[in-house]
Amino acid sequence: MGQKPFQYTALTKEKDLDVLLQEIGDARVVMLGEASHGTSEYYTWRTAISRRLIQEKGFNFIAVEGDWPECYAVNRLIKGYPNAGGKIAEVLEVYRRWPTWMWANWEVAALVELLREHNNQRNQGEKVGFYGLDVYSLWESLEQIVRYLESNDGQAAEAARLAINCFEPFNRDPQTYARATAFVPTNCEHEVIEMLQKVQQQRSFSNDPEQDFNTKQNALVAANAEKYYRAMINGSSNSWNVRDSHMMETLDRLLELHGPDSKAIVWEHNTHIGDARYTDMADNGMHNIGQLAREKYGRNNVRLVGFGTYQGTVIAGKAWGAPMQKMDVPPATSGSWEEMLHNISTDDKIILSKDLKHVPEVQDYIGHRAIGVVYDPKYEMFGNYVPSIIPERYDAFIYFDETEGVHPLRMKSRGAKEPDLYPWNY
């Protein structure tokens, strides 16, 4: 165990988060990261932080790296809308797109239960929301638009049907669409833009306070998804930028929906929330939602919190669409940010960036672990470390010396008990 070259707070109980809450202060947007999409501790501690932000600082909603239609179903459940379902685990079955374990897991079920209990004690306008920021749900969003508009706005519904018909030859597969249109001028861009304009022009039909917003958001998702999938096939940074720009646009719309004094919590991977200008992503012309939020709202109004681990296990797949499995996460590579934190002490810890100002090792780029939904521990050293200037990329960092994989609903053994995810006392 080495020297302690900078100040940190050991993280053992929920009260230890006080130092982070103090650092967050009056920020309007708090982004909570993760170094993988399959680590239990990231979910459970983000839940603990989010609970305190909601109860102590009046945050209005959580927006996550998930698809809009599925997350909106969860939003309706936690707010007690009619016909929204009753059993949390059943509602989370809406997450059918691979990787299902990201949101259909027991850690998220615990978060949903917490939010539902919080909302049960409040009037409709005071209830906390749960929304998806992502752009993948092209077909699902189109279908939701048509179903809603068929009984409300014939002109907009017809535009949505034309958009769906344009995509029909591609077997409901956006990637097939992208490949088919890569080298020919024919695509469905005109149809989705026309639909978006028609939907945005429609008058309000519903007494449901969020239904019109939901319809317009699905139209925006469809338009940006079409753009994303076409950009993706070219293999350039443009598809990444389309996706993160959409997430930022959705965050803006949600803040506007909730009013001028609203506050947002964002859950996404470190690669999205950690300011891209202080990584090698910038060299490739890429931006992300953390950077865009700082630029729009000002650095004092945005707090970016990274998460990471030294070793443990994770849920991931060996290839895109492959079966999920629990994999070992080996000790962090030599010279990395995670190894530095491990060598300081094996404590789980909270590090504030302002306490790193006099640590020369982190004033320049240092390798920082990032595990995606596709992972193979054997090749980790060749592509799982993002060069980062840590104290600029984040405002704070939460480190775990050893972590375990998330607990997917679909991997639950018959008769097994739900995992004990929150050992601390609230």
TrEMBL record:
<dbReference type="InterPro" id="IPR007815">
    <property type="entry name" value="Emycin_Estase"/>
</dbReference>
<dbReference type="Pfam" id="PF05139">
    <property type="entry name" value="Erythro_esteras"/>
</dbReference>
<dbReference type="InterPro" id="IPR014622">
    <property type="entry name" value="UCP036794_erythomycin"/>
</dbReference>
<protein>
    <submittedName>
        <fullName>Erythromycin esterase family protein</fullName>
    </submittedName>
</protein>
<dbReference type="InterPro" id="IPR052036">
    <property type="entry name" value="Hydrolase/PRTase-associated"/>
</dbReference>
